[in-house]
C-alpha cells in the first residue's frame, strides 16, 4: 500500500509541474517580433512607421501678368553690324541659320538691352508648388516637417512660376519671331535659342497678383488604403524656423483629428557614427513622374545607410551626415534608429555643380532641435492608442499569430477608419487563417483552466490519500464484536493483550473473581431472567473448559458466548455465570453489561444508550477492590 501511495504522489507532483510550466509559458511575454530572423529590421520599421508618414503639399495660386516684348531697334541694328564683321572674319559661319542662332544667344544674355516691356499685358492663372514629407507627432493632428517645405522666397517663387506658368507665353513669343525670318528653315537648336530669349524676358518682367498660399496633407478616405480616394486636408502653419543651413523646422496642425498614428521621438545619443539610419519619405522621382499610379506615388519609401559624421553649419546648427539615399520630396521625412525612434529629420542632400541632387550624402536635423522647437509651442509628443494596438497587431502578424492579430487590426480600423494600411493587413490575416498558416498559441485562459484543473486534481488526490490513511489506522484497531446469539448485542471484553500477564495454570493460583455491582437496568433481562447476584465466585480452573461448568464441546457456554480466543487470551473472561474473571494481580477484566435483546419495534433511542453508558461509568467508579 505504501508503494501505491508513493506512486500516486509522484504522479500528481509530475502533473502539477507540467501544468504550472504550461501556464508559465503561456502567460510569459511573447518574444518581440524583431527577434524573428525571417523579418528584417527595415521591414518592421516600414510597417510600424509608414502609417504616420504623410505626403504634404505646398501650393501657391494666383494670376501671372506678363507684358508684351518690343524690340529696341537701335540695339538690334548694332548687333547685326557686329555679326557681319564676324562673318567676314570667318569667326562664324556665313549661312543665315548660324547667324540667327548667334544673334538669339547674344539677346538672351542681355534681354533688357534688346527688348523692352510694352502693352498689352497678358494674364494667366497658375498654380505651382511642391511635395514634401511630414509625420504625425501627436494623435490630435500636430505634424512635423521642414521649413523649406512650407515656405518659398520671392526669388524661388518667381522661378517656380516662370518654369510652370510661362511656358505657353514663351513658346508663343518664340514662334512669332521665327515666323518673321524669311527663307530660313528653323531646326531645334534655333527654336531653343529663340525661346530662351523670351524665357528670360518674361521671367524678369512677370508679376504675381492675387497670390494665395495653401498647405495640405494627403489623407485616405474611410475604408483604408492610400489610393485614388486620398484627398487633401488643409493644414495650419503653427511654427516655422529658418531654411537650411538654419534650423529647418516647421510645425503644422490639422484640425478635427483624433487617434492618428504617431512615431516616438528618441534622443541624439541613441545613434552614433557607424550606426545604420533609416529614412522614410516620398521621393520626388516617383511623385513627380507621370509613369506611376497614384497608389504608388502615395506609398512612402524607406532607405537606409550609415551614420557618417556630425557636422555644424556656419550658423552653428548641428546636422548629421549620412549615406542613406534621399531625393527631392524626402525633405521633412523622419529618420529612425534601429529601435524605431526618430533621431532626426531629413533636410538636404548634396547638389552637383549643375544643380542635380546627389545620392551620396544627406543631411539630417538632429532630434534635439525638433524637441526644442516643440517645447517652444508646448507640444508634447505622445503615442496614440491606434499606434499601440497597431504595433501589437504587427508583432502578432509577423510571428504568424494571425488569429491574435486579426481582432487587433479590426480595433485599429475602428479607432482610425482612415488608417492607410490596416485594411490590407486584415485581408492578409484572414487569408492566412483560411490557408491554415496560423500559428497562434492557445489562449492564456485555457492554460490557466488546465492548470487549475490539475491543481484541483492534486488537492483531491491528497484528500483521498489522507482518507485512505485514516481508514487504515482505524482498521488496525480491533473494534468490539457483538454476538447475536439471542437476538441481542453483546459486547466483547474491553482489554488488550499487552495489558495481561501469563497466569499460572494451576487451581491454587487461579485469580479470585467477583461480580460488578449491578444497577436496576442490569437486574433483569427482557426475558425476565435474573442476573447473578454479587459475591458469587466459581472455583473453576482459569483457562480450562469443562462440560460440567457449563461448556459444550464446541467451546460455547450456556449463554452462547464463544470462549475460544485466537491465542491472544491466556485466561477466560467470563465464568459460568457470565461474570468477569479476576487476574492474579488483582486487576479486573471489565465488560459492559449485556444489553437487552433488541426490541421488535424501532431501534433503541440514542439517548437511552447514552444513559446506559453513563450508568456503567458511574458503577465502574464505585467498584470495591477484591478481597485479599
Automatic annotation (TrEMBL):
Superkingdom to which the source organism belongs: Bacteria
PANTHER family in UniProt: PROTEASE DO-LIKE 5, CHLOROPLASTIC, SERINE ENDOPROTEASE DEGS
Organism, scientific name: Microtetraspora glauca
Keyword Membrane among UniProt keywords: yes
Protein name listed in UniProt: Trypsin-like peptidase domain-containing protein
Positions with biased composition (Basic and acidic residues): 554-572, 605-618
SUPFAM superfamilies, A to Z: Trypsin-like serine proteases
The keyword Transmembrane helix is assigned to this record: yes
Record's keyword terms, sorted: Membrane, Signal, Transmembrane, Transmembrane helix
Stretch forming the signal peptide: 1-32
Region (Disordered): 498-628
